[in-house]
Amino acid sequence: MRPIVTDQNSLQNPLNELLGTEACVRLLRVLANEVDGPLSASNAAERAGLTAPGAYKALKRLLRSGFVIRIGGGRKHLYGLHRSDKLVKAVLKLFQSEQERYETLLGAIKKRIDKLVPYPHSVWIQELPSLFGDPLLMGVLHETRHLSNYIHQLRKQLNQVERDFDLTIEVNGYTKADVPKLKDAKVTPLYGVLPFPDKYARGMYARPLTHAEKDQRMLALSRKLAEAIEHDTSLVRRAKEHVRRILKKDQGSATIDITEWRDILESYSTRRLSRFLTSTSERANRLRQSNPIFAILSSDERNQLLNEFGGEQ
Fold first, then answer.
1. For 139, phi and psi rounded to 5 degrees?
2. Side-chain half-sphere of 267: how many Cα atoms within 13 Å?
């Protein structure tokens, strides 16, 4: 049965075509937020979490609308946004607002966590809602004697967050004896050190490390980040946006380092930034601990980086 009763023309209602399917929205989000240049169809499909046929179909629809353009010739086409179009500019702002809303939510949750004592070992987002109305699931690791009361107090603190974002938040409490087995790529850390560290962290803490050894590991990871920004300049843009957003709120003692990162990202060329990331100066060593470029990596980007890093250990 056809759900639409009357047709609407594409001239007055172009957003019907632009945002017509989830596949189109996913591709637009990738082109708007995750890259600074054009992508191949296969690369766009991978980044958007789409099948190749699904991505080709959506790209064809977006090409027909004129909001996405084909770049280059030959058999291997690249696709990019028609960024000079007025509607595309508005959509770019919409995706930016989407990201800011999510980061504001995380900030609000972290603020509530910081209010409660005794502090837990760690807090994380265990599962994000797939559909509107589904709950956001959090996990908390605490000492047995404090766990029940902490969960009760945290749920009370989160009531206002739920009202502000029209969201249901469920909290699961764990002790060291019953920590769940979760895939680190699907987990968002909120506080403390996760009890199920990723591949890199497992290598970092497989045995006690001296400060010098930890500094060397962080330097090796920064070298990988330096290589990454030379291949994908969107990482720098995304880091700038991330720093601007978090500086809108008081970050306490961390504000000084974050402000320094803002100035570096705003004034350094890619080449100069790459050199700074691999520098062994006292300033570079200090700021390495709060590198915003690592913070903005998606799960897939982080895992790829850490896998490459781990393969060289």
1. -120, 145
2. 7
Measured CA to CA, the distance from residue 57 to residue 38 in angstroms comes to 17
Contacts of 215 (CB under 8 A, 6+ apart): 285, 288
Inter-residue contact 133 to 167 (CB < 8 Å) = no
Tens of pLDDT, residues 231-257 = 888 899 989 988 888 787 655 556 788
| pTM score above 0.85 | no
Amino acid at 56: Y
Same domain, 214 and 248: yes
Residues 6+ apart with CB under 8 A from 181: 196
Q: What is the 3-state secondary structure (H, E, C) of the chain?
A: CCCCCCCCCCCCCCHHHHCCCHHHHHHHHHHHHHCCCCEEHHHHHHHHCCCHHHHHHHHHHHHHHCCEEEECCCCCCEEEECCCCHHHHHHHHHHHHHHHHHHHHHHHHHHHHHCCCCCCCEEEEEECCCCCCCCEEEEEECCHHHHHHHHHHHHHHCHHHHHHHCCCEEEEEECHHHCCCCCHHHCEEEEECCCCCCHHHHHHCCCCCCHHHHHHHHHHHHHHHHHHHHHCCHHHHHHHHHHHHHHCCCCHHHHHHHHHHHHHHHHCCHHHHHHHHCCCCHHHHHHHHHCHHHHCCCHHHHHHHHHHHHHCC
> Which CATH number fits the domain that encloses residue 114?
3.30.300
The pairing of beta strand 122-127 with beta strand 136-141: antiparallel
Environment class of 154 (CB within 10 Å of its CB; exposed 0-12, middle 13-18, buried 19+): buried
Tens digit of each residue's pLDDT (9 = 90 or more) over 132-187: 899 999 999 999 999 999 999 999 999 999 999 999 999 999 998 888 877 655 78
Q: Which CATH number characterizes residue 23's domain?
A: 1.10.10.10
Domain count, the chain: 3
